[in-house]
C-alpha cells in the first residue's frame, strides 16, 4: 500500500511506522519457518544424503519408543515409530514396488510371525546385491512415510534396515527375520473342495481350488483322474499368489457304486478323495429291433430308459453293445420318475453270422438284450408253422414263411419233404415256385397226406436251394381200414345162380377201431355192416349176389379209407352140339351168415360154394383148345370123370 494511502487513513506518522515495522517482523518470522520446514521434507530419494534428524524433534511419549534408530512396524505394515516422528500413530507404510507390463505398481507389505510378507502371502526373500526382494523385481521393499519421504529397505547381515541405517523391528522390539527360500518360477497347488452327490451313469461335478504359490505367472493343465484315466482337462493361467475355483466333470459308469478314488492333479501337486456314488434304480426295455438282416446291413435298435429313483435332473450314459463290445454311447438327461427313448444303429459284418446279441446297458445293472439274426444274402426259410392235431392217414396243409435276404430278386423252387418216424428216409411231397424281390417275404402253403408209418411223429423240412428249416410234427394214432383181399373185378356166372362177394379188411393204423363196410349194387346200398378190428388185425364180411339174366350187376364195396368195385355178369347162352359143347353142373351150396366178428386167429365167415357152369369153348369146325376137346371126353374117359373135370374148370373160371 503506498505511504500516501497509509497516511490517508487518519493515523499519525508514528502509528503508521510502528504498524509497518511490526508487519515486516511477523512476515520475516513466518518466512523463516517455511524455509526450515521445506528443508526437513526434501529427502525423497535413497540417492540423497542421509538427512540429519535433530534431537529437537519431540516424541509424543519418548519412554515408549523402541529405540531412536529403529523403524517400528505393526502387523499391518504401518510404520508406527522412528527418530523423526512421534510414537503410537501410523506415520507410514512398508510397501513393495514392482513393475508389471511396463507400469509401476505398489503392494502393501505386512509383518506376520516376525516375517515380512506381501499381502498375497509371499515371504520376502533375499535377492542378489544384498537387497530384499519378492519375485524377480529388486529392490522392491521400501518404507514410505506420511511426510512423503521414501527409503529403500536393504539387508545388512542378519538385519533388515532402511538405507538411513534404522533397523526394521516389530512393535515388540524383535528384528524382522529374513526368509532365505530359493526363488522359483510358478508352482500350482490344488485342493478338491466338493464332489456332487450322484448315482451311477450321472455326471459328477468336482469343484477344485487351484493356486499359484510361485513367483511368476504361468499356465498349467488341471485335470481329474479315475483309475489313472484323465476325465476333464482344463488349462488354467494364474498370476503369482492368485487362486481360482474350477468346476470339473466326471462321467460315472455302471458299477462305480459305492464310490471311486478321484484325484485332482497339477504338474506340481495332487489331491485325492473317495467320491461316493449312489446306485439308483433304472429299467431299460428294448421297444423295437430288426428281427433279421443280411450281413453288411445296419441293425436299428430302439430302447426306453426309465428312472425310478434319484432326486433332481441328471445326465446318464447309455451304452450299446454288440456281442458284449461297446460300439456306441448316448448321454441322456432324466428327472426322477422320467423316461426317454434312445436309438442306436450297428453295421453288421461277416463275423456276425448267424446272429448278434444286441444289448442296451445303462446305469446300475439296467440292461435289455435281443438276439438278431444276421443272414447270408439268400432266399431263406424264415419259419415253418407246424400243423396241429395231425392224425394218421389224412390230408394236411403246411405253411412256411420264406424271405429274400439278398439285394436282388430271387426266383427259386421251394419244396416240402417228409421224413418217416425214426428214419432218414425222406420223401418230397410238394413243390412251389417262389419269386421274391429283395428284402421281401411271403407265406407258402404245401399239402401232403399222412400215413400210418408217420406215427408217432414225423419231420417236415421246407427247403430252398440255399437254406432249409425243419419241424417235428406229432402224429396221433387212429384206426385205418384198408382192403387186404377183394373179389375179382369181373365175375361171370350162369344166370339165376349166386356168387359171394367176400372182402378181407385190415386195420393198418395204430388204434383199435370199427370198420364200416358198405356193399352197393348198381349204386344202391344192399348191406352195411360194422366190424370191430384191432390195430394190425383183419376181419372179413360177405354178400351173396344172384346173377341176373341178360344183364350185368356193378358192385362197390367201401370202408372208411378204401374201396373196390367190379362187375357180375351172366354167362352168355350158347347152342351146343354134341361135337363141340358140354354142360357140367356142380353141386352148389350157400352160406347165409352176413355178420362176422374178427378174431386174432383169422376170419369168421365161411367160404361160399358156387354153382358154376363151365363156359363154352369156340364153336365151329375144327374147334381148338381144351374146351373144344371136351365133347370127346365122355367117349374117351367115361361120364363120371368128365363131370368132375368140367366142374374144376368152371370153378377156376369164376
TrEMBL record:
Residues 563-620 are annotated as: Disordered. The chain crosses the membrane at residues 626-650. Residues 589-598, 607-618 have a biased composition (Polar residues). The keyword Transmembrane helix applies. The keyword Iron does not apply. Keywords: Membrane, Transmembrane, Transmembrane helix. Residues 567-588 have a biased composition (Low complexity). This is CARDB domain-containing protein.
Amino acid at each position: 500500500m503506498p505511504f500516501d494511502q497509509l497516511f490517508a487513513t487518519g493515523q499519525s506518522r508514528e502509528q503508521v511506522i510502528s504498524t509497518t515495522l511490526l508487519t515486516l517482523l511477523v512476515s520475516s518470522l513466518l518466512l523463516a519457518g517455511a524455509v526450515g520446514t521445506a528443508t526437513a521434507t526434501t529427502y525423497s530419494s535413497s540417492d540423497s544424503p542421509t538427512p540429519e534428524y535433530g534431537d529437537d524433534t519431540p516424541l509424543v511419549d519418548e519412554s515408549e519408543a523402541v529405540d531412536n534408530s529403529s523403524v517400528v512396524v505393526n502387523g499391518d505394515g504401518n510404520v508406527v515409530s522412528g527418530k523423526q516422528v512421534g510414537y503410537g500413530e501410523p506415520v507410514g507404510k512398508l510397501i513393495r514396488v514392482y513393475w508389471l507390463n511396463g507400469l509401476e505398481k505398489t503392494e502393501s507389505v505386512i509383518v506376520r510371525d516376525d516375517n515380512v510378507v506381501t499381502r498375497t502371502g509371499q515371504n520376502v526373500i533375499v535377492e542378489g546385491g544384498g537387497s530384499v526382494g519378492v519375485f524377480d523385481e529388486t529392490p522392491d521393499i521400501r518404507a514410505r512415510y506420511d511426510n512423503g519421504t521414501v527409503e529403500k529397505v536393504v539387508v545388512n547381515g542378519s538385519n533388515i534396515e532402511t538405507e538411513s541405517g534404522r533397523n526394521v523391528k516389530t512393535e515388540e522390539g524383535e528384528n524382522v527375520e529374513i526368509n532365505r527360500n530359493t526363488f522359483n518360477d510358478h508352482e500350482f497347488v490344488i485342493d478338491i473342495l466338493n464332489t456332487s452327490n450322484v448315482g451311477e451313469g450321472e455326471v459328477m461335478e468336482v469343484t477344485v481350488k487351484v493356486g499359484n504359490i510361485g513367483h511368476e505367472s504361468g499356465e498349467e493343465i488341471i485335470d481329474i483322474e479315475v483309475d489313472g484315466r484323465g476325465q476333464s482337462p482344463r488349462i488354467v493361467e494364474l498370476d503369482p499368489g492368485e487362486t481360482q475355483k474350477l468346476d470339473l466333470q466326471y462321467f460315472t459308469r455302471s458299477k462305480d457304486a459305492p464310490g471311486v478314488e478321484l484325484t485332482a492333479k497339477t504338474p506340481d501337486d495332487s489331491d485325492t478323495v473317495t467320491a461316493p456314488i449312489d446306485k439308483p434304480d433304472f429299467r431299460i426295455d428294448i421297444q423295437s429291433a430288426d428281427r433279421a438282416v443280411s450281413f453288411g446291413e445296419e441293425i436299428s435298435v430302439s430302447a426306453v430308459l426309465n428312472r425310478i429313483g434319484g432326486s433332481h435332473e441328471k445326465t446318464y450314459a447309455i451304452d450299446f453293445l454288440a456281442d458284449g463290445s461297446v460300439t456306441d454311447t448316448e448321454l441322456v438327461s432324466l428327472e426322477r420318475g422320467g423316461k426317454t427313448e434312445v436309438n442306436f444303429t450297428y453295421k453288421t459284418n461277416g463275423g456276425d453270422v448267424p446272429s448278434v446279441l444286441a444289448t442296451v446297458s445303462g446305469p446300475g445293472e439296467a440292461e435289455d438284450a435281443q438276439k438278431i439274426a444276421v443272414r447270408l444274402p439268400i432266399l431263406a426259410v424264415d419259419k415253418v408253422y407246424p400243423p396241429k392235431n395231425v392224425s394218421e392217414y389224412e390230408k394236411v396243409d403246411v405253411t412256411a414263411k420264406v424271405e429274400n435276404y439278398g439285394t436282388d430278386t430271387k426266383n427259386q423252387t421251394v419244396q416240402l419233404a417228409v421224413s418217416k418216424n425214426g428214419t432218414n428216409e425222406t420223401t418230397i411231397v410238394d413243390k412251389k415256385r417262389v419269386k421274391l424281390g429283395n428284402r421281401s417275404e411271403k407265406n407258402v402253403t404245401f399239402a401232403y397226406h399222412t400215413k400210418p408209418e408217420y406215427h408217432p411223429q414225423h419231420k417236415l423240412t421246407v427247403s430252398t436251394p440255399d437254406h432249409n428249416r425243419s419241424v417235428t410234427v406229432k402224429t396221433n394214432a387212429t384206426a385205418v381200414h384198408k382192403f387186404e383181399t377183394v373179389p375179382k373185378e369181373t365175375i361171370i356166372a350162369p344166370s339165376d345162380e349166386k356168387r359171394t362177394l367176400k372182402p378181407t379188411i385190415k386195420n393198418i393204423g395204430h388204434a383199435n377201431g370199427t370198420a364200416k363196410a358198405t356193399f352197393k349194387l348198381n349204386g344202391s346200398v344192399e348191406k352195411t355192416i360194422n366190424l370191430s378190428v384191432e390195430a394190425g388185425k383183419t376181419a372179413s364180411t360177405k354178400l351173396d349176389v344172384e346173377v341176373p339174366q341178360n344183364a350185368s350187376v356193378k358192385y362197390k364195396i367201401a370202408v372208411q379209407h378204401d374201396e373196390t368195385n367190379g362187375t357180375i355178369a351172366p354167362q352168355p347162352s350158347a347152342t351146343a352140339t354134341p361135337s363141340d359143347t358140354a354142360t357140367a353142373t356142380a353141386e352148389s351150396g350157400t352160406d347165409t351168415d352176413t355178420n362176422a366178428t374178427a378174431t386174432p386167429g383169422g376170419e369168421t365167415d365161411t367160404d361160399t360154394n358156387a354153382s358154376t357152369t363151365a363156359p363154352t369153348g369156340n364153336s365151329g369146325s375144327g374147334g381148338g383148345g381144351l374146351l373144344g376137346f371136351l365133347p370127346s371126353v365122355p367117349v374117351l374117359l367115361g361120364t363120371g370123370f368128365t363131370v368132375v373135370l368140367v366142374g374144376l374148370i368152371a370153378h377156376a373160371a369164376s
